[in-house]
Specification:
Elements: H1 5-10, H2 17-25, E1 34-36, H3 41-54, E2 56-61, E3 81-86, E4 93-97, E5 102-106, H4 111-119, E6 123-124, H5 137-143, H6 150-153, H7 156-159, E7 160-167, E8 170-173, H8 186-190, E9 199-206, E10 208-209, E11 213-221, H9 224-236, E12 243-247, H10 249-258, H11 263-274, E13 281-289, H12 291-307, E14 311-314, H13 315-323, H14 328-337, E15 340-350, H15 351-370, E16 377-382, E17 389-399, H16 405-423, H17 441-460
Parallel strand pairs: 1-3, 2-3
Antiparallel strand pairs: 4-5, 5-9, 6-10, 7-8, 7-9, 11-13, 11-14, 12-13, 12-16, 15-17, 16-17
């Protein structure tokens, strides 16, 4: 256990925009009284039992990368103190069953360590969220994460075969059988539970052989609508590449601007202009697998992309995206230093409603920030593709409103959340609920759904010590006035 000032501050918040603004201002509203580092499932269970007995709140902590207020160290009502339960010591691969393509991994194992340990067996999980360098397997499962290659490998909920979790009322463990009709799936109750029902300590995941070939390439398309139709056709035909990422016109324009004025960039822009794609969209496709499989998939994908007006830009741009796929958060930190508001939000809906949702949310963000005198740049991309629909991932950039940074953020967050709910999108596709999305959860799952989640929490966590203020019992958004 540690209770020094630096450790407490490092565990006080995650990586959301409000978290970073408050940390930079030195106004952290809450910090744990201590941080504990259990070494195994039994020690986690003992910590939770002690917390329940002494009315001490317990906040599970993996990589600390939550962008929705999911790891804020809140005491909750009636709790004398709060401890953060850091799972860093639960980093291991307990068992690998290569024949069944299953691996049991500790919840505190970070993304790079997951891949390193599986590589020793010639395997991969293939889960690469933007927070990959620091986030953990347990955090992915607790927040129902989606990786950048989820179109090919599946979301984390697709990859979880079984899990083990400690709760104040005991242990829940689900088996990794390939299928069962033994009632509702308790695994699904814990996946996405955000540490409010239990602390996930180990996960059995579905793995596959490491790819021997990877080919990343970029295409230019006439507009977003053409790109969406391309992705829909590829996914419904069962040939969408592992990475299928479509940037809208604004995001493409920024990408081209950030390429600078090198001779290569100038040639690229001239080529796009000559082909009538100077103001279009870019589609990044990442093919992974065996050499023959990649070649066959590319041969089937390319005619579809060309049919929708795609112009090949080659693999150099694709490899550049792959090399920088985790760099976004670092750029955000630099922009914050320069007094720039930059944040993201994401949603998903069906193919039939995707463009309407895109327009509605973009308009809501622009209107909210223009009304405050800080007109934004709003960009969007599609990065997770399903047979029935796709996700939308928005990035917005504006000048910070001096003295009202959190009020400014709250205004745009509320406007975007209301627009998503009104258009029938999900309030979160892969960032989870935490505190920030809680106001819209009821509209998505209904009053009875909320009651059902609260009933599960009451049974597993009767004293309410697990991650107070998140998911079903979250309070107002930070900065709401």
């Amino acid at each position: 256990m540690r209770d020094d000032h630096a450790t407490r501050v490092l565990h006080a918040a995650g990586k959301s925009y409000p978290d970073l603004v408050r940390l930079r201002a030195g106004t952290v509203p809450s910090a744990p009284d201590a941080v504990v580092y259990p070494a195994d499932h039994d020690e986690v269970a003992a910590v939770l039992a002690a917390c329940a007995e002494h009315a001490v709140a317990a906040v599970p902590f993996g990589g600390g990368t939550s962008v929705v207020g999911g790891v804020e160290a809140l005491r909750g009502p009636g709790h004398a103190a709060v401890v953060t339960v850091d799972l860093a010591r639960l980093s291991f691969v307990r068992e690998v069953d290569a024949r069944s393509q299953l691996a049991t991994v500790g919840a505190g194992t970070t993304g790079p360590e997951v891949e390193r340990l599986l590589a020793e067996h010639g395997l991969t999980l293939g889960h690469y969220p933007q927070s990959f360098e620091f986030s953990t397997l347990g955090g992915w499962v607790a927040t129902r994460s989606a990786g950048q290659a989820s179109t090919g490998y599946g979301r984390i909920d697709d990859l979880v075969a079984g899990l083990r979790a400690a709760t104040p009322s005991g242990t829940i463990a689900t088996s990794a059988v390939p299928g069962t009709a033994a009632g509702p799936d308790l695994r699904e109750l814990l996946v996405g539970s955000e540490g409010t029902l239990g602390v996930i300590t180990e996960v059995t995941v579905r793995v596959r052989p490491r790819p021997t070939t990877a080919r990343y390439e970029v295409w230019a398309l006439p507009d977003l609508a053409a790109g969406i139709e391309t992705l829909r056709e590829l996914r419904q035909a069962g040939i969408a590449p592992a990475v299928s990422r479509l940037s809208d016109e604004e995001e493409t324009r920024l990408q081209l601007a950030m390429a600078g004025d090198s001779s290569t960039a100038k040639i690229g822009r001239a080529y796009l202009a000559a082909r009538g794609r100077a103001h279009g969209c870019t589609l990044t496709l990442g093919f992974e697998g065996g050499a023959d499989g990649v070649a066959d998939q590319r041969a089937r994908v390319h005619p579809v992309v060309r049919h929708h007006g795609g112009v090949a830009l080659g693999s150099r741009a694709g490899e550049k995206w792959r090399d920088g796929r985790f760099h976004g958060p670092y750029l955000r930190d630099e922009l914050l230093t320069r007094r720039v508001l930059v944040d993201t939000l994401e949603t998903a809906t069906t193919w039939g409603d995707l463009l309407d949702l895109y327009r509605a949310v973009g308009a809501a963000i622009r209107r909210a920030l223009r009304d405050r005198g800080t007109p934004p740049l709003v960009m969007c991309h599609v990065s997770h593709v399903y047979a029935t629909g796709a996700s939308l991932y928005f990035t917005f950039v504006a000048a910070q409103e001096d003295g009202a940074e959190l009020e400014q953020w709250h205004a745009v967050k509320a406007a975007a959340g209301d627009a998503i709910a009104a258009a029938g999108g999900t309030i979160t596709h892969h960032h989870a609920i935490g505190r920030d999305h809680a106001p819209w959860l009821g509209a998505e799952v209904g009053p009875l759904g909320l009651d059902l989640l609260r009933a599960a929490k009451a049974r597993l966590d009767p004293t309410g010590v697990l991650n107070p203020g998140k998911l079903v019992d979250a309070g107002p958004l930070p900065g709401a006035g």
